[in-house]
Specification:
Number of domains: 1
CATH class: Mainly Beta
Number of strands: 14
Radius of gyration: 19 Å
Number of helices: 2
Strand content: over 45%
Helix content: under 10%
Largest sheet: 11 strands, mixed
CATH topology: Acetoacetate decarboxylase-like
Order of helices and strands: EHEEEEHEEEEEEEEE
CATH architecture: Beta Barrel
CATH superfamily: Acetoacetate decarboxylase-like
């Protein structure tokens, strides 16, 4: 009998790319919030959702350096299975009379983070992600103090597609407002017939527990997006920067909730509305 949470399932289950939930995350984030053209954001919303009335063009572009582990924390002693970086976009939308955060694009640099995201509904791709680390000794980096300067870059398929610069200003109460709502994701998998239908088409939400934040700093920020033949991030080019943030974060995740499921025989026009 095969066992394991996800593929590849095997007799002992050790070959699975990821362990069974819960999963625990600790890391640090650099966030730049800015305004883009709302007409570029709207096509990224799920069926039945609409732009929020309050600041509909608000976007967050976030870099994160993570250490993650399953419940037995075995990855902590084998850090190649634990440490990874990611960069992702967050927008907001209105669905079912609630405000949601949504991640239309995300890049990671490890396979276990990639497929874990597929389970959760994040549309992850592989990328090359780098961000400045704060230091507490020496001179090879910024301190968490006013004037500390940080950089972040994102490349995919051999091309740089985003970069940002941050200069810390002062401690603040919150690391922004765009990524501050329950997540609204799609879990989609094409049918094996490859005929344009999907074997799985779900609208899902997820949230964590035991969340902690620390060392929240506001920052002056600038961000630049670059064209790529295999990415569409540049369509969300900044019109106006709102602000930047640095913070440390810890969160755990166990399960999500299916909000809408379209059966394979249904078209999008025939499916239930949100």
């Amino acid at each position: 009998m095969m066992s394991g949470f996800l593929f590849p399932r095997s007799p002992e289950g050790r070959a699975s790319l990821i362990p069974s939930p819960p999963w625990h995350y600790s890391g640090e984030m650099l966030t730049v919030e800015y305004r883009a053209d709302p007409e570029r954001i709207e096509p990224l919303l799920p069926y039945g959702a609409s732009l929020v009335d309050d600041d509909p063009g608000a976007v967050a572009l976030i870099w994160a350096d993570w250490q993650s582990a399953g419940d037995d924390l075995s990855e902590v002693l084998d850090p190649v299975r634990s440490q990874y970086k990611e960069a992702f976009v967050v927008i907001r939308c209105q669905w079912d009379d609630e405000t949601w955060s949504r991640c239309p694009y995300i890049w990671v640099d490890k396979d276990f983070a990639l497929v874990r995201g597929y389970h959760q509904g994040y549309p992850k791709k592989l990328g090359d992600i780098w961000m400045t680390r704060p230091i507490e000794v020496g001179r090879a980096g910024p301190r968490l103090e006013a004037g500390g300067r940080f950089g972040a870059t994102l490349s995919a398929a051999g091309r740089r597609i985003a970069e940002a610069r941050f200069t810390l200003t002062k401690p603040v109460d919150s690391p922004g407002f765009v990524n501050g709502h329950p997540m609204l994701h799609n879990r989609v998998w094409p049918a094996i017939e490859s005929d344009g239908t999907d074997s799985m088409d779900e609208l899902v939400t997820m949230s964590g527990y035991d969340g902690e934040v620390a060392d929240i700093w506001g920052a002056d920020a600038e961000v630049t997006l670059f064209e790529s033949p295999v990415e569409e991030l540049a369509a969300l080019e900044p019109v106006e920067v709102i602000g930047g943030y640095y913070h440390r974060v810890g969160i755990s995740w166990r399960a999500g909730t299916t909000l809408r499921r379209t059966v394979p025989s249904e078209s999008i026009d025939e499916g239930p509305e949100g």
